[in-house]
Amino acid sequence: MKKIAFIGLGNMGLPMARNLLKAGHELKVFDLVQAAVDELVAEGAKAANDAHDAVAGVDLVVSMLPASRHVEGLYLGDDGLLAFIRAGTLVLECSTISPDAARKVHARAKALGIDLLDAPVSGGTAGAAAGTLTFMVGGDGKTLEKARPVLAAMGKNIFHAGPEGAGQVAKVCNNQVLAVQMIATAEAMALGVANGLDPSALAEIMRQSSGGNWVLERYNPWPGVMANAPASNGYQGGFMAELMAKDLGLAQEAAQLTQNSTPMGALALQLYKMLLKQGKGRQDFSVVQQLFIEPEA
């Protein structure tokens, strides 16, 4: 079993850390929200005074933070964690950040003799709780093999996407597809219901036909169609719209760097920005359904 520092106990990080505890690992945890730390301490983790304290004497570090600036701020610079983590320690950076930011952190870690992988995840809060996340890993393949047992305690599917930053590229590509699928499904659901179709019947017809997709299988955006989907719970829980907007923005940054044309991704980003302006950023990303429904008089 490993001595692990876990930094970032948000909606995703907390259940991921909990699964490491369940697997028998020894955890030191840190988050700016003390309640999240206290919750894991009650389950057997040890509280760190700060991030530097968290990484002292551990075998492995896991971080799960909101955005590129948080990751760069945590790891880089004279006071960054990489300057305090001992050589040979394994670092799993699981946040969704820009590929360029990931490569900066990789470069600094390599210069200091620290093994680092960028390993963003897919599967949402339900997958984090169930330990069935998909990890998209960028970095050295031999390092991934060393990390695999720890990743397996948190996820079901572990893919080596390629070299440094490749995990982040795979993640933004995946989430662009997911956003476009969600928007297309929401648009079609609204069209069918407006023309007199029962939403559950329409959803099942499309699911079993050539329009079938992951959203129709597991995450229908129309309220009441799937009892366990966020749409049937006031669009609470799940993956927040503001995070989808962030990931779509990262996809556009990557496209600009390589001169790729991504018109569907660009349109998806604008629609999610509309949701943010409407104050719906903290709701599940399937709330995009509401853009296609006429408000009641």
UniProtKB/TrEMBL annotation:
The keyword NAD applies. Its EC number is 1.1.1.31. InterPro entries: 3-OH-isobutyrate_DH-rel_CS, 6-PGluconate_DH-like_C_sf, 6PGD_dom2, 6PGDH_NADP-bd, HIBADH, HIBADH-like_NADP-bd, HIBADH-related, NAD(P)-bd_dom_sf. It comes from the Bacteria. Pfam families: NAD_binding_11, NAD_binding_2. Residues 165-289 form the 3-hydroxyisobutyrate dehydrogenase-like NAD-binding domain. It catalyses: 3-hydroxy-2-methylpropanoate + NAD(+) = 2-methyl-3-oxopropanoate + NADH + H(+). Residues 3-162 form the 6-phosphogluconate dehydrogenase NADP-binding domain. SUPFAM superfamilies: 6-phosphogluconate dehydrogenase C-terminal domain-like, NAD(P)-binding Rossmann-fold domains. One of its GO terms (biological process) is L-valine catabolic process. Belongs to the HIBADH-related family. This is 3-hydroxyisobutyrate dehydrogenase.
